[in-house]
Amino acid sequence: MALSQVREKGKEIGYKLKMSIIMLSHMANDGYVTILTPILSEIKSEFGLSPIEMGLIMSIYSFAGSGMQMPVSFLADYTGRKKTILSLGLVLSAIGVLGYGFSAGYVSLLFFVLVAGIGSSSYHPTGMAMITDELGRDRKGFSLGIFTVAGSLGSSLMPFAMGFLALYSWRLGAKILALPALITGVLIYLLFPEGHVENRSIKKTLIDIKDLILLNPPVLLIASFGGIVSLIYFGSITFLPLYMTEVYGWNPVKNGLFIGIFHSTAIVSQPLLGYLNDRYDGKKWLMVAGLAGAAALSLLVAFPSVMLTVFFGCIVGAAVLGVRPLVTALATDYTNTGTSSSTIGFLFMINTAFGALSPILGGALQYYFSIQVVLVIYSILLLLGMLTLLPLKEKDSAR
Fold this sequence. Notes:
Elements: H1 3-34, H2 40-47, H3 51-79, H4 82-100, H5 106-120, H6 123-134, H7 140-165, H8 170-177, H9 179-191, H10 202-214, H11 217-248, H12 252-264, H13 266-279, H14 282-302, H15 306-332, H16 340-368, H17 371-386, H18 395-398
Helix pairs in contact: 1-7, 1-9, 3-5, 3-16, 4-5, 4-6, 4-8, 4-9, 6-16, 7-8, 7-12, 7-13, 11-12, 11-15, 11-16, 11-17, 12-15, 13-14, 13-15, 14-15, 14-17, 15-16, 16-17
């Protein structure tokens, strides 16, 4: 075998190894968003929580991620040290999830949820940038596609694993499931090269962020819609399992399986909507998916049967998960490559901020009304969110 062939073979093996590590890290990161959803009823009973207190658990995670998204994204753009930031975030997430298993009460659980949320804030801006920077721009499309699917798989498998382990002990489940982020965080730090440190002034970077993101009307409109979608997503993964427990008496295993199926719909809806977005007007397909999700939320309340609830719940999952990559893709069409990490960070900041409000809002609605009212209000909010897309010009004319 020629030396050039050996080098090419080694390069291919290195690419596959790094992609495998990144995929596993994404599965862990996105899985931690849903890890507590199948056991919320167990936590509620153990700590004697009200619906508002229970909703605060999910909100704290999102608030932590939201508050750190832009600072972390700016730091990654300015220093170029994406590998270090990503690795530290994964390890911090692992510490938080591990802490769930040692929580002595509600306050300590909230503290570890806060730690895990801060750790998660570094992942998407730096992870997506590393995919294109370190794994080759010639494979960007394929690599990002695999990256996205890995996150959906993690969101599907993690709650099911936790639901199964909760049959023995949900605390033991948290301790075991903290390992993937810890291991991949260390491997990324050891195996990936550090990014190039650009000689950019802080003032120039901040001006670009202000002009191309914060004062860019199309980006703000798209971010608003993305925020509403995230509100519905976090509300769905919080209150649909509680709805199943309250109405049908489901246990953590069944809820974990349902949340897994809910997220697995993204494996179909994300590439399908992505294909339709590439061929046709992206705004139109965002609105079609939004309408389908809003209708499904109302219909699962209107027709209370297990099979129909699961069916309509899967439509909700396919809709809200399918449009999330489109929101990112559409927003970056209105910025430039020099602010891509900060644009992604801004979108995730808005998404997680809206998502953080969702469990608190839903908890209050459930406390004063009912869980059915929660789901109907979410349906109405998704319809209202679609109005933010109406002033948006088509991409060609916007340019």
